[in-house]
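Supplementary Methods, section 5.1.

A reviewer requested that the exact input to the structure prediction be made available. We therefore reproduce it here, unchanged from the version used in the analyses.
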Amino acid sequence: MKKIIIKTPEQIEGIRKSSKLAGQTLEYIAEFVKEGVSTEYLNEKIDAYIRQNGAIPATLGYSGYPKSCCISVNEVVCHGIPSENTILKNGDILNIDVTTILNGYYGDTSKMFTIGEVSPRALELIEVTKHGMNLGIQQVKPGNQFGNIGFAISKYVKSKGFSVVYEYCGHGVGVEFHEEPQVDHTSRRNTGSFMVPGMTFTIEPMINEGRPGTIVDKVDKWTARTVDKKLSAQFEHTILITETGYEVLTDVTGEY
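The structure derived from this sequence is encoded token-by-token as follows.
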């Protein structure tokens, strides 16, 4: 098994800058996310913004993935491929997932957007997903175990009547797109590797309205949908373990 990379101060600074750009990209795209636009239009805007800021999109060409971001609408759990044929409509919810490579360093983040009048159930799902992520982030501190992130998330999410996707997880990130450790969003308490200052990784729970399972599109080999066609939501941040706790590297609004 690969070891978890403890980043040097120089690497942390590079990851911090890339993560900031990834967060700024989501802030930038927000004004263009509206009824009637295609997800491909948003993809092109994101690609241009990332490149104008001296970086490149990490997803483009990654294992053959064809676009510069992932945009997952309604029942799409993750890895939704932007398309001219996917037009946003009133009532839609969507996740936009961006990963930047700036000077060789990676920053990875995603958040939910809503179009027009969204159902109360969809809004509750989004709220629970974000709070679940935040509960996971609060577990980050030196000496804690990674399993406690997933334990905190799943205990809360299940108490609200939603389910946690177990087929996808968070991951180490920074000097590579995907590194150790695997960060599960449903796990047993006091399991997994111990947290050490200098580790960087994502917490990115995918929460389903109905059952937790997913099905990957047989044609495009990427798009993962809920098995029951019910809604899914996701939030994601890149986190650094500090000497005293955590730093949310992709937070550009001062929320943390």
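The chain has a mean pLDDT of 98. These observations are discussed further in the main text.
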